[in-house]
Each structure stands twice: as C-alpha cells, then as structure tokens.
C-alpha cells in the first residue's frame, strides 16, 4: 500500500468516526468506532483462518450453514482450532460482513447513504459481542478477551432516542466500514494497525486534556523506543507500567526484529480495553502480551515476572499517590529510605520501574522538569540514584507544548543498571528544536534523529549537549536542571556607541532640515507653523 493509499484509508476511517461527532464527545465516540473496527478485524481474521482450514474441503467459511447435515461437526472442529490459534471464535453468521449485509437489507444499493429503512440488527450485535467473550471462557485467552467490549454501550441514549434510531446509526457505520478492505491477507503490511494508531492519535487530539490518560505523541514514543532498543535486535521483554492504549509498547516493537513478550499495566478500565484491542489488532498473539488492570503503584501486577529488558513509560505528570509509610518495607522503595511526596508520584514511578529493570536493560521515562531540581524527598531519591547506584545515563530536555492537555516542558530520563559510561551523564537540550503546527509543537524526524544520535554516540554539541561528570553533578548538589550543564547562552551583539551617537546626530540634522522646510511652506500659505 502506497503512502497516498494509506492516507486515503485513514481519512475514510476518520470520516466514519465523524458520523458520531455531533452526538457525543471525542473520548466517547472513540470507544464505539474503535470497538466496531476491532469487531470487523476479529471477523476478517476468523474468516481468513477458517477458509484456510477448509481449503482441502473446497469450501468457504460463509458457506457453512445450519441447514448442512454436518454443520455442528464443521463448527466444532473450526472452533477448536480457532480458540487454540486465535484465542476466540465466531460463527459464519456472526461475522461483521454478514451483520453489515443484514443491516442494509436487500433493497440497499451501492451507496450506503441511500439506506432509507435499515433492518434491525441491534439485538443480534449485542449477542455476538457477548459470544466472542464467551468463546474464550476456560481457555488461555480468557483474560485477554474478558469484558473487551464493555465500553461499547449499544443501549446508550447518545446513539439515539429509540432502539430504531440507535440501530440506524450503527447500520450506517457498519455499511461504511464494510466497504473498506484492511488487506489482512497481506502479512507484509499492517494497514489496519497503522490506521488504528492514526485514529487513536486523532481522538487524542480532539479529546485534549483527557488524552494524556491514554496516548503519548508518536514523536515522543519514537525517541523512547529508539533509546531502549539501542544496540539490540531482539528483546526478551518490554514493559510499560502506565501503558495507556499500548501504543508505546508497540512502537518499541517497530525498532527491533522481535519482542518475545509485552507487559503492561493500566488503571483506567476503558484504556485497558483499548490497549488489549490495540495489541490484538497489531497481530500480537494473545500468549505474547500480558496487560493487567490495576493501579501500578498501589497494586503492582508483574512483581513475579522476570526483570524486563526494556522499560518505557509516560506516567501521569505529578500525580497524587498514597505514599503510605508501609511502602518503606516494599522492595521497590525500601533501599531509598524515603518515599516520593504524596502530591507528586513521579519518582515513585521511577523507583517502581528501576525495580523491574534487568541488569542489561535500558529504561526511558517521560517526566515533568520538576524532577530535575525539586528538593526534600525527591532530592534524596535523585542523589541515591546517582551517587549510590549510578543508574542515571541521560537527561533529555524536550520542547514545551508537545503533549496533549499540557503545555509544560518535559524531559526524558534514561537509566541503566550496567552503564558503559559510568563516569559521566549526558545532558541534551532539545527544547528549542521543533516545528510549530497550529497550536501544538511537533518534533520532526530530523529532531528525533538528532536526539537519538546524540544520546547513542554521547556527542557534545555546542549549545545542545554536554557530558557532565559525577563530580560536577555533586558540586551542583544533585540539581539536574539542564542549563547548569548545557550552556545555551547567546552573547548579545556588541553595540558601537560612536556609530549610534553619529546616527542620532544625523537624524537630528535631518529633522531640523525638515522642520525648516515645513516652516517655509507655512509662511508661503500664510498660516502658523505646527511647532
């Protein structure tokens, strides 16, 4: 698929999403559109898989109907294979395309906007979404499909006042979606995965402040992903303790040939569902990801898993947390002697992540600038990480206004337990290099590549990056504010006082000449001069 075709597909999907724009907020109609796309994906994946099984029988999955004598035998055999390989099962009459066709009815023509009396499919659709979940019960994929469609409230009054009104909206959306080919049979491209990521980004842009709950801008994701995959072609594991929609985890996978397993945790149920859908839509097998629903700091879910080779995160900035003294006996925090303050959980997330980091791993986390210089407990933790552990590898300053919902400047902290350069820390000031796009600042590929290249090669660039020794940082009392290490001072142009004085004198002479000319004109006209 060409770049132009990809953009056409993305625009088609966004146009379909806008069917609901006038009915509800962006973060609400997101759940419907992405949920319907996910159902279509599961259906097409199921059909392709079943058709392959039926090749030797010279049949197609949709040709299997209850009228056949051996219907149950075929269904049971395909169900068994599908649950094992895909993790779920759909019957032929439960496929998205069949429901879309049923909704249009026999009288619908090629133009879906001409549907004047849609067939009622609302109740069938409700049952099918429940059946998808039920098909996984008692299997290894049960946790990965549990309540996946719970945010798809087909009874919501926002879809319409009456069941008929709601049905009409759904039929229209299904008819439009049914015309789009996601090309799932082409394993070389990920059309749907890319389109899904595009939509998540669009919804994030529309949702504004709420977007921070589920989405990290792609350019920031690229930086984090490239950093944690430095020097690696395969990863045993990648972990995101505040995984949102899972986009950051998937971005890491693009930078290497293979990721053996993805781990994540998310406390918002809607976003947790979105993350699992996103994994499956990107063809990540259900056995290769483990996304949990819980508060990461209060109830961590991956303590018994092996340390992770790559860790990435964009935690909520300066969030509140419990900070109960009981956590001082928690292995994640006990060695520091102090907890992050109740009003700012930033370093609590850092401590949590470091606890999970493998000895050969790399960790990159986005945080507000306050973590670089705030005092009290945060300074104590910062000092311990540098002086006692020597885990901090890099401090990268990003431009302001690149995140949805906040205009504050942010930074990336990079940590390693076994550092190749233990005597210094690289500081990068990338805060002034960005592209202004409408009201948002964006990092272009050239900006991203410069940051990553500077980090990987530990380059010192005038007014952009510098290597600071541990002794320098100690002298600065463990204050990591970037201007203390990267000199961005621009010397003002020298002023030639004599030249300025002469210029003023010349202007005075010219003004005197102008005044005399005006006075002469006034005399000729017989009027008083204005001065």
How would a textbook summarize the main sheet?
9 strands, mixed
**CATH architecture group name of the largest domain:** 3-Layer(aba) Sandwich
For the record, the count of structural domains works out to 3
Query: What top-tier CATH class of the largest domain fits best?
Result: Alpha Beta
CATH topology of the largest domain: Rossmann fold
The number of helical runs is: 16
Biggest sheet, spatial arrangement of strands:
5-4-2-6-7-9-8-10-13
Task: Supply the CATH superfamily name of the largest domain.
Answer: Vaccinia Virus protein VP39
DSSP strand tally: 13
Which structural class fits the helix and strand makeup?
alpha/beta
**Beta-strand content:** 5-15%
Please characterize this protein's 3D structure:
The chain is of the alpha/beta class. The protein has 3 domains: 3-205, N6 adenine-specific DNA methyltransferase, N-terminal domain (Ferritin), CATH 1.20.1260.30; 218-267 and 299-484, Rossmann fold (3-Layer(aba) Sandwich); 495-531, no CATH class. The chain has 16 helices and 13 strands. The chain has helices at 3-17, 26-53, 71-85, 96-104, 122-134, 142-145, 163-178, 191-207, 218-228, 247-253, 269-281, 346-356, 376-388, 445-457, 470-475, 497-525; strands spanning 234-235, 238-240, 258-259, 262-266, 289-293, 308-313, 357-368, 392-397, 410-416, 424-429, 435-437, 440-442, 465-469. A 9-stranded mixed β-sheet has the order 5-4-2-6-7-9-8-10-13. It has a two-stranded parallel sheet with strand order 1-3. α11 (269-281) links the parallel β4 (262-266) and β5. α2 (26-53) runs antiparallel to α8. It is globular, with a radius of gyration of 30 Å. Residues 209-213 have low confidence and may be disordered.
